[in-house]
Design a protein that fits this description.
The complex is a heterodimer of chains A (about 110) and B (about 525). With about 110 residues, chain A is mainly alpha-helical. Chain A has helices at about 1-20, 25-45, 65-95. Chain B has helices at about 15-30, 35-60, 85-105, 115-130, 135-155, 160-190, 195-200, 210-230, 235-245, 245-250, 255-270, 285-305, 305-325, 330-360, 375-390, 400-410, 415-440, 445-450, 465-485, 485-500, 500-510, and strands at about 65-70, 80. In chain B, strands 1-2 form a two-stranded antiparallel sheet. The longest helix of chain B has about 30 residues, at about 160-190. Classes of the chains: A mainly alpha (about 110), B mainly alpha (about 525). At the A-B interface, α2 and α3 of A face α5 and α6 of B.
C-alpha cells in the first residue's frame, strides 16, 4: 500500500509540475489543482498509513493519527478557495490581454 | 492557574483580532459613505499602532507572553507567542501600514472595491504570522495575508497589473503547496507542529527520521525564500511591486520581511543551537544566497527603466543585505533587525515618491526619459535626494548605521565586505543617474541644444495633504531611527540575545518542566 500511495503522490506531483511549467493559463491552473491533490494525499500519509482504525483513542486496539486529517481538511478548504481565485484571475487576464499566454503575448511576439 | 483573565492577558491576540474585526465591519459598511469607511480604517490603524506599542512595552524587559487559544495546553493547542522579535515586527508593520493607509486615502482607495477591507485583512494575516507559535498556523496566516495581498496587488486593475498579478499569484500558490509538503515532512519526522515542541524534539530526533526532517527544513527555506524574494525565486517581485498602486507597494515593503522573519525564526529556534543533529541546517545556504541576491538585484537596480522598478529591485537588494546579516551570528542578527526597519521605511518612501513624481511629469511619468521641467522641482528634488541617501545607505541617515553595523559583524568574511560595498556603490550610481534623469534632463534642456522643438509644460500639482503626511511621516520615522539609534540598538541586541537561546522560548511555551 505504501508503494501505491507513494506512486500516486509522485505521479500527481510530476504531472502537476509539468503542467505548471506550460505557457497557457488553463494548463497552469490544472497543474496547480493536481499539485494541491497530491499535497493533500501526502499530508494524509504523514500520520503513517493504517487500515480500518478510527482516529479516536480507546475505540479500538490502536488508533489512526487524527491531526493529519484535520490538516488535510484545512488544506482542502484553502486550496479550493485559491483555485477559485486563480481561475477568476486567469479569465480576467484572458479578457484584458486578449490571449491566454501566461506572459500575455502570443507566440508571434505581439504584445 | 487562574481562570480569571485581565485584559493584559489578551493583549497578545489583540493585534490579530482588531484588524479582523475592522475588516469585517468595513465589509458590512461597504455601502456607506467613503468618509465613514476611511475614518474607520484610519481609527483601526491608529488603534493597532497603540496596541503594538503596548505589546512592545510589555515584552521589552525580556518577558515572553504566551497566549493559549481555547486554553489548551501547549503542544496540543495553538499558541501565540509575543517575544521581543514578534513585537518589533508588529510595531514596524503598524507604522508602515499607517503611512501607506494615509497615502491611499488620497484617492487610490477609490480605484477599486473593498480596498480597506483587504488592507485590514492583510494586517490581520501579518500580525498572525509574526505572533503564531505553530508551524501549520503560520501556513494559515500566510494564506490570509497572501489572499488579501492578491486583491491589493490587483487593486485598480489594468493589463500590466493583471499580468504581474497572475505571476505573483501562481508563484505564491506553488509556494503554499511546497509549504504544505514541508510542514507534512516535519510533522512526520518530529511528530509535532508546535514550534517550541519541534525545537525541543529536534534535539532527540531518531536517526532514521533525520533525512525527512532535513528535507522538510530545507523545503521550508525554499518557501520562505520565495516570500522573501531570494535569488533564484525573486523574479515575481519587481513586476508585481512596480505595477501595483503606490500605497500597496509601500505596504508590501513589509511582505518580503515576513519571509526574512520566518527564516530568522526557524533558523534560530528549530535549527538553532539546541537543534541536535539539525542545528545549523540553514548555515551553508544563507550567506551564498544572500550574496547572489544582492549581486543580481544590484544589476537590476542599474538596469531599471523607471523609478518604481528601481525601488522594487532595491527591495530585493535590501533582502540580500538582510539575509547576509542573519548569517553572521549574534551581532549580525542585531544589525539586521535594525537594518530591516530602515530598509522597509526607505523602500516605502521610494515607492510613494515614485508615484508622486509620476503624477507630476506629463510625458514620461517616472521613466528615466526627458520630460517637462517639473513644477516645484526643488521640493521634489530634495525629497528624492533624501530618499536616495536613505536607500543607498549613505551617511548621515539610518541606512548607513545599519550597513556599518552589518559590516562590523563580518570580520571573518572579508569578501562579504566587498560585495556589500560594491553593491552600495552601484546603487549610488544608479540613484544618481535616476535623479539627474528625472530632474535635470528636461525637455527644456533638449530644446536649448536643438534636439527638440517645442516644450511641453508640466502641470502644477500642489503638494496634497496625504502626500505630505505619508511621505513626511516616513521621513520622520527614518530621522527618528537615526537619532534614536542608541536605544533601538539596545533593544535589537537584547532581541538577538533572546533569539540565541532557544531554551527561553521552549520554556515559555511548554513550561519549565521540559
Amino acid at each position: 500500500m505504501e508503494a501505491l500511495i507513494a506512486l500516486t503522490i509522485g505521479t500527481l506531483t510530476g504531472c502537476g509540475v509539468y503542467l505548471v511549467l506550460r505557457a497557457r493559463t488553463f494548463a497552469v491552473v490544472l497543474g496547480l489543482t493536481l499539485l494541491s491533490y497530491s499535497v493533500n494525499l501526502f499530508l494524509f500519509a504523514t500520520g503513517r498509513l493504517v487500515v480500518g482504525l478510527p482516529p479516536v483513542i480507546g475505540a479500538a486496539a490502536s488508533h489512526a493519527d487524527p491531526l493529519p486529517q484535520a490538516l488535510v481538511l484545512t488544506a482542502i478548504v484553502i486550496g479550493f478557495a485559491m483555485t477559485a481565485f486563480v481561475i477568476m484571475l486567469s479569465l480576467r487576464t484572458r479578457a484584458e490581454l486578449g490571449n491566454d499566454h501566461v506572459d500575455g503575448r502570443d507566440s508571434a511576439g505581439q504584445s | 492557574m487562574t481562570t480569571v483573565l485581565n485584559w493584559l492577558d489578551h493583549l497578545v491576540i489583540a493585534p490579530v483580532l482588531l484588524p479582523f474585526a475592522a475588516g469585517v465591519l468595513l465589509l458590512l459598511l461597504r455601502d456607506q459613505s467613503m468618509v465613514m469607511q476611511r475614518s474607520l480604517a484610519l481609527l483601526a490603524g491608529l488603534l493597532q499602532l497603540g496596541l503594538t506599542i503596548a505589546l512592545l512595552l510589555q515584552v521589552a524587559d525580556g518577558q515572553m507572553l504566551v497566549y493559549r487559544l481555547g486554553n489548551w495546553p501547549a503542544p496540543w493547542g495553538i499558541v501565540l507567542v509575543a517575544d521581543r522579535l514578534a513585537a518589533w515586527m508588529l510595531l514596524l508593520t503598524s507604522l508602515l501600514a499607517l503611512c501607506a493607509l494615509v497615502y491611499a486615502l488620497g484617492g487610490s482607495d477609490r480605484q477599486g472595491r473593498h480596498f480597506h477591507v483587504l488592507f485590514q485583512m492583510q494586517l490581520c494575516g501579518l500580525a498572525g504570522a509574526f505572533l503564531t507559535g505553530d508551524l501549520f498556523n503560520l501556513f494559515v496566516f500566510f494564506e490570509i495575508l497572501l489572499i488579501a495581498s492578491y486583491g491589493l496587488a490587483l487593486h485598480g486593475g489594468g493589463p500590466l497589473r493583471t499580468r504581474a498579478g497572475l505571476h505573483y499569484v501562481v508563484m505564491n500558490l506553488l509556494g503554499s503547496t511546497v509549504f504544505l509538503f514541508a510542514a507534512g515532512l516535519i510533522y512526520s519526522a518530529l511528530g509535532s507542529l508546535n514550534l517550541a515542541d519541534l525545537a525541543a524534539k529536534a534535539a532527540r530526533l531518531p536517526a532514521d527520521n533525520l533525512g525527512l526532517a532535513r528535507a522538510g527544513g530545507l523545503l521550508l527555506l525554499a518557501v520562505f525564500g520565495l516570500k522573501a524574494a531570494l535569488v533564484p525565486l525573486h523574479l515575481w517581485l519587481p513586476a508585481a511591486y512596480a505595477n501595483t498602486s503606490a500605497a500597496v507597494a509601500a505596504l508590501f515593503a513589509i511582505m518580503t520581511k515576513v519571509g526574512i522573519y520566518a527564516i530568522l525564526r526557524t533558523h534560530t529556534l528549530l535549527f538553532g543551537s539546541s537543534g541536535g543533529e539539525l542545528a545549523g541546517l540553514f548555515d551553508p545556504w544563507l550567506l551564498p544566497l544572500a550574496m547572489a541576491t544582492l549581486t543580481l538585484a544590484t544589476l537590476g537596480v542599474l538596469a531599471a527603466q523607471n523609478l518604481g522598478q528601481m525601488a522594487a529591485y532595491l527591495v530585493v537588494a535590501s533582502v540580500g543585505t538582510l539575509l547576509a546579516a542573519l548569517a553572521l551570528g549574534l551581532p549580525g542578527i542585531a544589525a539586521g533587525l535594525y537594518y530591516l526597519v530602515h530598509s522597509s521605511f526607505s523602500a516605502a518612501l521610494l515607492f510613494l515618491l515614485a508615484d508622486a513624481i509620476r503624477r507630476r511629469r506629463p510625458l514620461a511619468g517616472d521613466r528615466f526619459t526627458p520630460d517637462a521641467d517639473m513644477a516645484q522641482h526643488a521640493l521634489w528634488g530634495s525629497l528624492f535626494f533624501f530618499a536616495a541617501i536613505a536607500a543607498a545607505g549613505l551617511p548621515p541617515l539610518s541606512g548607513f548605521v545599519g550597513k556599518f553595523l552589518i559590516l562590523r559583524a563580518t570580520p571573518q568574511h572579508p569578501w562579504v565586505w566587498a560585495v556589500i560595498l560594491l553593491a552600495a556603490l552601484a546603487s549610488v550610481m544608479a540613484l544618481a543617474r535616476a535623479g539627474s534623469a528625472l530632474f535635470f534632463n528636461t525637455t527644456a534642456a533638449l530644446a536649448r541644444t536643438g534636439n527638440l522643438a517645442g516644450t511641453p509644460v508640466a502641470p502644477l500639482v500642489p503638494l496634497a495633504a496625504h502626500e505630505l503626511l505619508a511621505i513626511g511621516g516616513l521621513i520622520g520615522l527614518i530621522l527618528a531611527l537615526t537619532a534614536g539609534a542608541g536605544p533601538v540598538l539596545d533593544y535589537v541586541q537584547a532581541t538577538a540575545a533572546q533569539l540565541a537561546d532557544p531554551a527561553l522560548y521552549i520554556q515559555a511555551v511548554l513550561g519549565a518542566g521540559r
